[in-house]
Amino acid sequence: MAQEKTPLPAPKAKPSLTVTTGLPTTQVMLARLQANGSLAAWQEAVVGAEANGLKITEVRVNVGDRVQRGDVLATLQSDTLRAELAQAEGSLAEATANAQETKVQAERARSLQQQGFFSNAQLSQALATEASAQARVQSARAMVQLQQLRVAQTVVKAPDAGVISARQATVGSVVAAGTELFRLIRQGRLEWRAEVTAADIGRVQVGATVQVTAASGQVLRGKVRMVAPSVDAQTRNALVYVDLPAVTGTARAGMYAQGEIMLGQSQAMTVPQTAVVVRDGFSYVYTVGADQKVSQIKVRTGRLNADRLEVQSGLSPDARVVFSGGAFLNHGDTVRVVPADPTPASAAK
Which of 185, 200, 233 is the last residue of a domain? Predict the structure, then answer.
């Protein structure tokens, strides 16, 4: 009889790739909220004409100019007002002289009344004349002050330091009281009005640090000043107002900007960013079992800090994760394992 042959053992699967593996690491990561919004003037002051019916004779500033509080922005024609001021000052001088004369007469009447030469009625008349003259002096003085104020209003001054953002004043135009001549961004400061969803609005705290990147590329740092008390009924978003410093770069009011609002710190399980493979819109990591075969695991990712990515769910803390080479693997592949450096490449500050 022929002797039965002993079956040969199945050949081991040849490793398809050499990979590095390691364990997930727990570290402190910053919680950030990304948002979009627009840059706007922190406060925009409207500078108008106080005098009525006067012609602009000079405009000293233009859009973009930086001014200090009290700087002259424009001047109005003042010839007529100065003439009226001179007339009022003359009336005051005349009233003052008359008041001095009536005062002397009143003192003389008191003396003569004490000597019996003047009656009480004559004394009362002299005192009344003196009081009337003093009243005319006060009225004339008030008129002088009024004319001085009107002359002062022919010089339009900056109410605060800042940057001129708009100018309607033109030489030769006649303006009415209240006419807008300039707009001024007070202190040159901007603010970022970030749109935040209703679900995230409760996470934002006043005073939180914010980093804003304007459409021009300039990076600004600021702090949350206020969270809007209501949510827009159309967009279901709320505004977060972020104070920014005085801007001297390329950022401008009206620009679109993106930013990150810092929400604090928390512990997170992380893996290298290279360990996460995105396929069909989902995130996966590959783990290696004792048989050197890989398993594809669907995970949910979160924050990114340098080259470390947070894994929020789907991964066990003691799983051996493929740190590099996962993009070329499929579920069930056999691999050759080379341990990775267990120390994270970076840590959150």
Answer: 185
